[in-house]
């Protein structure tokens, strides 16, 4: 059964108001940028609302106009992180379909470069993402993005091989997403060299998994 956020949790974590004017949007961006900078500087230590406000050059009251607490700020950062993946996957569907295995391998490499940058630039957000995944009340937030990402991976594979059945393409997309994410989390907890080696391993696993289904020479 698909679980949705309960009303109490949603109210507690949702932004208090959505920016409707350009000025308000800039204020929210300042808050989120400040929070992201602080998470990078402080590592596993969660920044306080006061620290976020000070870094953004705002009063605490101004921050509270948009977010009820620091958890809501971090959760919004998590949402933005999750929402960055569909765009980079969709880019692979917009280019000409590869006609052989080497061309497809190059397309996979381009995708890995783009997605790896998202992980590396937001490494300090991983505890937030893991908290979303491990919390039954918050998990629906990630589920929504996961569904879109799986569908895009499936569409990409069908772009390469239009004869590939949708059910098979989505199954492969699920494995691509789950394996890629889990392995990258492991890599981020080590050092950059280990992360890069794990990236190469995941790329090799992806190619071994999907290439037999793509009818490429």
Structure description:
- Residues 1-25 are annotated as: Disordered.
- Keywords: DNA-binding.
- The chain is an all-alpha fold.
- It is 75% helix and 0% strand.
- It is built from 10 helices and no strands.
- The chain is elongated.
- The protein starts with 6 loop residues before the first helix and ends in a 7-residue tail after the last helix.
- The model is unreliable at 1-5 and 8-12 (pLDDT under 50).
Give a quick account of the main beta sheet: strands, pairing sense, barrel closure.
none
Rg, Cα atoms, Å: 19 Å
Give the overall shape: elongated
Question: Average pLDDT, to the nearest integer?
Answer: 86
Structural class: mainly alpha
* Percent in strands: under 5%
Order of helices and strands: HHHHHHHHHH
Uncertain spans: 1-5, 8-12
Q: Give the terminus-to-terminus CA distance.
A: 42 Å
Number of DSSP E strands: 0
Biased composition (Basic and acidic residues): 1-17
Region (Disordered): 1-25
Keywords: DNA-binding
Domain HTH tetR-type: 25-85
List keywords for this structure.
mainly alpha, disordered N terminus, 217 residues, HTH_TetR, DNA-binding
């Amino acid at each position: 059964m698909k679980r949705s956020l309960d009303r109490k949790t949603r109210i507690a974590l949702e932004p208090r108001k959505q920016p409707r004017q350009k000025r308000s949007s800039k204020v929210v961006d300042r808050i989120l940028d400040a929070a992201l900078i602080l998470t990078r500087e402080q590592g596993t230590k969660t920044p306080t609302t006061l620290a976020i406000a000070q870094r953004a050059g705002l009063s605490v009251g101004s921050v509270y106009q948009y977010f009820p607490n620091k958890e809501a700020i971090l959760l919004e950062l998590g949402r933005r992180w999750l929402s960055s993946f569909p765009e980079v996957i969709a880019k692979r569907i917009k280019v000409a379909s590869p006609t052989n295995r080497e061309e497809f391998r190059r397309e996979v490499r381009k995708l890995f470069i783009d997605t790896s940058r998202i992980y590396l630039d937001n490494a300090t957000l991983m505890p937030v993402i893991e908290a979303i995944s491990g919390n039954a009340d918050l998990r629906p937030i990630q589920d929504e993005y996961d569904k879109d990402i799986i569908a895009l991976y499936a569409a990409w594979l069908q772009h390469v091989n239009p004869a590939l059945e949708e059910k098979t393409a989505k199954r492969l997309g699920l494995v691509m997403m789950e394996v890629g994410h889990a392995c990258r989390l492991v890599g981020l907890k080590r050092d950059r060299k280990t992360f890069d080696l794990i990236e190469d391993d995941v790329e090799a696993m992806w190619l071994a998994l999907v290439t037999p289904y793509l009818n490429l020479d």
